[in-house]
Amino acid sequence: MRVLIEGVVTPMKRFRVFVFLAAIAGFTAYQGRQLHIYAASDQAPAGQATQNAGPTHGGDAAAAHPSELAAAGGSLFQQNCAFCHGRDAGGGETGPDLTRSKLVGEDVGGDKISDVVLHGRPDKGMPAFNTLSSEQITDLAAFIHSEQIKAMAQSGKRKGVDVSDLQTGNVEAGKDYFNGPGGCATCHSPTGDLAGVASRYEGLQLEERMLYPKDVKSKVTVTLASGEKLTGTLAYLDEFTVGMRDTTGTYRSWPVNSVKYSVDAPVEAHVALFSKYTDADIHNLMAYMQTLR
Ligand code: HEC
Ligand code: HEC
Q: Which member of 1, 34, 41, 243 lies 3.0 to 4.6 Å from 253 by CB, making a disulfide possible if both were Cys?
């Protein structure tokens, strides 16, 4: 820790060091919880669950064994990614097989995967997960790599997309979820914006649309240094630049540090839902959506 405390140790610096240490302790506890959840869940591939069951040792997160990282990543993956990419990353109803991905093949410790996960490819149906920490992404990458190794070992025995899953839901349960715990009714109405949605999209396309509607535009409000406020469609955003199309269709952009801006992206509520859904919720919702013709 010496490196952190250079020169005069101000109370502020001491506070920062404290916060840093507290964060490490918190992270370690968090990892322990993840491992515990994973070991207790029947979603874990059998071999790994037993291998990692039991208390975590010592609490030195940096020294975690690769298979422990993969186990922590496994539970994150089941929560956030499996709906689209399948439980074993081997491809699912709406996302590609990651075990056959060239990008995954070239990834080392998350260096390629992290960019895709943090920024997503919103135009292609891959959401951005910008609240995941770099540790969580390293864990996710470890899990994806371990699945890739398994898949290569047993090629030929792959399971495909199970379209019949789309027909297993319960309409009433889906409707209850829509109006209740899913919170869908706060933004949508079956007789308003979603009326006829099942006539506009079918099967997988409808599921894709429901999980993560692609190509949806966000609103942005930019406040200039002068106090002038401008509202438009978000056209570009990274750590340096914010850009919009104003009401006349003209593109304008600013360095982010010269203005204040706020983005209104209600569709991101769909990303927050990934960690809440169970497979049954999705299939029930799909059954309900399919009645909206
Ligand atoms: C709503 C569905 C959905 C969810 C949820 C999702 N993905 Fe994706 N993902 C996609 C789609 C669709 C693509 C393909 C995008 C394209 O065609 O470029 C993709 C692409 C990727 C790729 C790039 C593969 C390649 O070969 O280019 C990676 C890596 C990836 N996803 C990882 C993840 C991880 C990790 C998570 C969870 C944190 C996740 N995805 C969650 C739909 C999803
Ligand atoms: C915070 C608001 C919000 C919440 C909560 C929300 N959505 Fe959405 N949803 C959106 C927005 C915004 C869009 C994009 C609408 C568009 O295409 O213009 C969208 C699109 C959709 C679409 C595609 C509609 C179409 O015509 O293309 C479906 C289906 C959908 N949502 C279902 C759901 C379900 C089911 C839930 C609950 C599990 C849910 N949404 C929760 C905001 C929300």
A: 243
| pLDDT tens series, the chain, 293 aa | 333 333 333 333 333 333 333 333 333 333 333 322 233 333 333 333 333 333 333 334 344 566 777 788 999 999 999 989 999 999 987 899 998 888 998 888 899 999 999 999 988 899 999 889 999 999 999 999 888 877 766 644 333 334 455 678 899 999 999 999 999 999 999 999 999 999 998 877 888 888 888 778 889 999 999 999 999 999 888 888 999 999 898 999 999 999 999 988 888 888 878 778 887 888 899 999 999 99
Ligand nearest to the CA of 99: 1
Nearest ligand 2 atom to the CA of 177 is 38
C-beta 212 within 6 A of ligand 1: yes
- Decide: 277 in ligand 1 pocket, CB within 6 A: no
The answer to whether residues 23 and 110 belong to one domain is yes
Q: Are residues 132 and 99 in the same domain?
A: yes
Is residue 113 a contact partner of residue 141, using CB atoms and an 8 Å limit? yes
The model's pTM: 0.59
Distance 188 CA to ligand 2 centre (A): 6
Q: Is the CB of 45 under 6 A from ligand 2?
A: no
Pair (101, 179) in one structural domain: no
Q: What angle do CA 119, 120, 121 make, to 5 degrees?
A: 120
Ligand 2 site-directed mutation target among 94, 187, 288, most atoms within 8 Å of CB: 187
**Residue 258 falls inside a structural domain:** yes
Domain limits for position 183: 164-213+271-289
Instruction: Verify that 12 and 146 share a domain, yes or no.
Output: yes
Would residue 11 be called left, alpha or beta, if left means φ above 0 and alpha means ψ between -120 and 50 degrees? alpha
Q: Which residue's CA is minimally distant from atom 16 of ligand 1?
A: 124
Nearest ligand 1 atom, CA 140: 35
Residues 67 and 83 in one domain: yes
